[in-house]
RNA sequence: GGACCCGUAGCUCAGCCAGGACAGAGCGUAGGCCUUCGGAGCCUAUGGUCCCGGGUUCGAAUCCCGGCGGGUCCGCCA
């Protein structure tokens, strides 16, 4: 109803006239159409050689949208009638302008963030959460039925280490006022680092001289880190260290925790869930500040207790691809797939897929096997057509193993419809973060630092509201304006720079547009507008507004939120240039005033909708 | 050693997948604009062997091949 893609209609009309004359399909012609690099050239261009047409051709084009057309070398350039476009857009523009719905909605699952529940979220998870949430919002706005799911890895070695450390402390509760995930993170890092030092010291006993030197260096590094982490809570550290020192075989104890939890031992269940849920509370609190919410938190352990993992394991053990590998049962993922299948499953040609180990020698399960069960659940309950996993680049191979295993175990459709949305690392001034070693900048810390910068800025402005909305906008934009597969060195200075090319810049531009409209307060329609006013930035603005439906569709269908960020920035740039030059409300000529009011309304609508699908709030003052 | 990702202005990045016209922003640096709808803004200047070498094409930052540089992975961790 209100979803008017005027430009799309214009393209189709032009294409349907020209296609027969050029002897090509209408769709093909629409596909090659592009926007000329400079306005003087025209509004639309068709590169004729791309359609197999060479040399000068004579074509007839007769449309109420077209002002003129001419061939310039290989291009057919078309100048459109801005009055016709303007009238069509603004006589039907609605609140939801541009957010075109798909004809056939899919059921989509986006799994994202899924951090281990053992330490607070850090800036690596921040990237994951923001990308994931933007994908949720984009696909939802496109009309799909989207579910956001968080996978709680509560049954692996990491959680067991945390619980082991807590056992040495007598299972304490975090002090009131302390954030629970921060508190647990310190205990986890302490326990882990003490265990690592102990392990490496053991290894030192029977090694050659060369290895010895290397390992001593590594141990010394760990000892230095241990001193650092000890300072966070010396009594805790000393008690854990003492407890581990007196332990005959800590690894056996950890293995026992894993085993008991997998078996569903009531006491172990109670303890593990208590602490895991504490950390998850911390996650929810942190993510809430960034307007990120989930529909489901799926506990890995539930898949074990329900028998879903066991059933997959049985299936795998009876598979023809089963092999023995280093004394374990594993799946051979190379032998039973042809080239064609590998291509379909997006597995690189030259990759020798490592065998998938199905379980540890002691019978406990491993992550990837459990993930097979989880993937099936994501597809089955509730039913999904497409599953998008937002997971770090480091897990590319395990994700390939997952798809290959699904195929081999008889779920080829699931394997095909499982997308690994990969993103690259976030480093910290060249330093790699490590939750394992307690070396990270937490999401909360980042949030707080950006918040301070926003408050600082507001102080100099005197007036303002919505601090948290601005912080959210700044952080989201900083992440979403960089393609996911580029590594980022996290730089707080960049995120707290609120000048052009930032989230707050877009929000500020929105405030300007909004305030013009709210001050005007009257009726805005297309009666009596003067079309001769549509020149320079105003004409440019009109065409940018016209491109919004197309940009949104591309961003949503290709899962590329960055298309939207750069589009909104460009819209803002043009609007701000114009804003400085001319008046809207104070324009004495009634026709011109109405033309401009329509454009402002267009900018306001597009910014609001565009920001919304990126998860950035629009403000009315700041 | 193998696989994947990245390499565009002093710095941070769009553009590459679906090839098209003199390659776009921001930061920085130098200078300018507050009597008018909000200066988180606007204007001017500055700045590029699009990592290198071949190939395909009417046309290559974009596709292909070969290098170079950086990142990631190759665990009975996740």
UniProtKB/TrEMBL annotation:
Keywords from the named record: Aminoacyl-tRNA synthetase, ATP-binding, Cytoplasm, Ligase, Nucleotide-binding, Protein biosynthesis
GO biological process terms held by the UniProt record: arginyl-tRNA aminoacylation
Domain DALR anticodon binding: 506-622
Keyword DNA repair appears in the UniProt entry: no
Motif stretch ('HIGH' region): 115-125
Molecular function terms, GO-annotated: arginine-tRNA ligase activity; ATP binding
NCBIfam families: PRK01611.3-3 (NF002446)
Family according to the record: Belongs to the class-I aminoacyl-tRNA synthetase family.
Matching HAMAP family: Arg_tRNA_synth
Protein name, UniProt field: Arginine--tRNA ligase
Organism of origin: Metallosphaera yellowstonensis MK1
């Amino acid at each position: 109803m209100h979803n008017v893609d005027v430009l799309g209609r214009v393209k189709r009309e032009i294409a349907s006239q020209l296609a027969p004359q050029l002897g090509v399909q209408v769709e093909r012609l629409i596909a090659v159409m592009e926007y000329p690099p400079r306005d003087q050239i025209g509004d639309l261009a068709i590169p004729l050689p791309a359609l197999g047409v060479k040399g000068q051709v004579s074509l007839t084009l007769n449309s109420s949208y077209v002002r003129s057309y001419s061939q310039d070398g290989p291009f057919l350039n078309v100048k459109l009638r801005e009055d016709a476009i303007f009238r069509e857009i603004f006589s039907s523009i609605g609140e939801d302008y541009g957010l075109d719905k798909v004809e056939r909605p899919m059921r989509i699952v986006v799994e994202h963030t899924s951090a281990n529940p053992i330490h607070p979220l850090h800036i690596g998870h921040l990237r994951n959460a923001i990308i994931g949430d933007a994908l949720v919002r984009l696909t939802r706005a496109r009309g799909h039925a989207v579910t956001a799911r968080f996978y709680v890895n509560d049954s692996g070695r990491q959680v067991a280490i945390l619980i082991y450390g807590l056992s040495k402390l007598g299972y304490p509760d975090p002090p009131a006022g302390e954030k629970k995930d921060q508190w647990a993170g310190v205990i986890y890092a302490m326990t882990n680092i003490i265990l690592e030092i102990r392990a490496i010291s053991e290894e030192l006993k029977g090694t050659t001289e060369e290895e010895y030197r290397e390992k001593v260096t590594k141990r010394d590094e760990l000892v230095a880190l241990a001193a650092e982490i000890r300072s966070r809570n010396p009594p805790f550290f000393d008690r854990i260290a003492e407890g581990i020192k007196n332990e005959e075989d800590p690894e056996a104890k950890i293995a026992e925790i894993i085993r008991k939890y997998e078996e569903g031992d009531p006491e172990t269940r109670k303890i593990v869930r208590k602490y895991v849920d504490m950390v998850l509370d911390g996650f929810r609190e942190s993510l809430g500040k960034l307007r990120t919410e989930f529909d489901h938190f799926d506990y890995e352990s539930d898949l074990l207790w329900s028998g879903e993992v066991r059933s997959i394991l049985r299936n795998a053990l009876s598979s023809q691809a089963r092999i023995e590998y280093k004394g374990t049962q594993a799946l051979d993922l190379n032998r039973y797939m042809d080239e064609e299948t590998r291509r379909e499953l997006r597995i690189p040609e030259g990759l020798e897929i490592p065998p998938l180990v199905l379980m540890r020698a002691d019978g406990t399960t491993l992550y990837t096997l459990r993930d097979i069960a989880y993937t099936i659940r994501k597809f089955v309950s509730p039913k999904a057509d497409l599953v998008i996993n937002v997971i770090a680049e480091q897990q590319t191979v395990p994700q390939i193993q997952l798809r290959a295993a699904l195929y081999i175990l008889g779920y080829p459709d699931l394997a095909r419809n499982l997308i690994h949305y990969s993103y690259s690392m976030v480093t910290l001034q060249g330093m790699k973060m490590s939750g394992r070693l307690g070396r990270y900048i937490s999401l909360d810390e980042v949030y707080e630092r950006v918040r301070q910068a926003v408050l600082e800025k507001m102080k100099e402005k005197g007036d303002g509201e919505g601090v948290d909305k601005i912080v959210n906008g700044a952080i989201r934009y900083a992440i979403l304006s960089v393609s996911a597969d580029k590594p980022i060195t996290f730089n707080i200075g960049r995120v707290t720079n609120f000048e052009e090319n930032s989230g707050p810049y877009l929000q500020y531009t929105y405030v300007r547009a909004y305030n013009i409209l709210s001050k005007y307060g009257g009726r805005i329609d297309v009666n009596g507008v003067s079309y001769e006013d549509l020149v320079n930035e105003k004409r440019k603005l009109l065409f940018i507004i016209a491109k919004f439906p197309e940009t949104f569709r591309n961003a949503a269908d290709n899962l590329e939120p960055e298309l939207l960020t750069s589009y909104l920035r460009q819209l803002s740039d043009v609007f701000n240039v114009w804003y400085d030059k001319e008046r809207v409300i104070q324009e004495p000529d009634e026709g011109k005033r109405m033309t401009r009011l329509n454009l402002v309304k267009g900018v306001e609508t597009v910014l609001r909708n565009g920001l919304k699908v990126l998860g950035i709030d629009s403000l009315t003052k700041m």
